[in-house]
Amino acid sequence: MTSNLAECINFVLKGTRHLPITSVVQETYFHLVALFPKRAASYAGQMQGGHVWCAKVLQEINKAKARANTMHIVCHDRDNLWFRVTEFDKSHQGITGGQYRVHLRNRTCDCGRFDALRYPCAHVIAACQNLRLDPMSYVDDVYKLEYMYNVWRHIFPPVPDERKWPSVSLAPFKLLPDRELRRKLKGRPCSTRIRNNMDIRETTNQQKLCGWCRNPGHTSRSCPNRNS
């Protein structure tokens, strides 16, 4: 949810970018065939062991609990669950302190991690400890093993032999290239950059100067002073 999808695909399908398109599709399909049952079995085994949340979230929450023990909490509204959490500087850990507003009822925190990641940050955990609330109740359901298992439990059916595929007629279709997308063989390529005020000449009557003698009226190819 927080990573670049293109980089994730490049990591999983490393080495297939230089193959023909049919080989790329085939490699993608059979790679997912092997990956989905493996991940589904892993999450199913964790659920049978009594686990509810994924290990990554539990690891991050344990780190946040260690930070929350050193914070100062002030409850401003007990009914609406408004808090002010003060975090002190920890230069050896690279932590810059400050004051953060935590609203548990709206599930928001000024640091932004609680709003973006949907699991409690250190400031939210500190506020929960002030009222003895369970911070796991503020973790989004998408981090449950049940939800992850439902993603990976889908199967990819086996592909039949290519000789048994039904024949497809391409008669009504004309597969012709788009000549407008063809790259020009000669000349300079057309610029697609959006022009602005920097590209406008200061004076409209300004002439182009020769690249050799810097005089107007001719170019560097037809410059009479080029040989001299």
TrEMBL record:
<keyword id="KW-0479">Metal-binding</keyword>
<keyword id="KW-0862">Zinc</keyword>
<dbReference type="InterPro" id="IPR006564">
    <property type="entry name" value="Znf_PMZ"/>
</dbReference>
<dbReference type="Pfam" id="PF04434">
    <property type="entry name" value="SWIM"/>
</dbReference>
<keyword id="KW-0863">Zinc-finger</keyword>
<feature type="domain" description="SWIM-type">
    <location>
        <begin position="100"/>
        <end position="132"/>
    </location>
</feature>
<protein>
    <recommendedName>
        <fullName>SWIM-type domain-containing protein</fullName>
    </recommendedName>
</protein>
<dbReference type="InterPro" id="IPR007527">
    <property type="entry name" value="Znf_SWIM"/>
</dbReference>
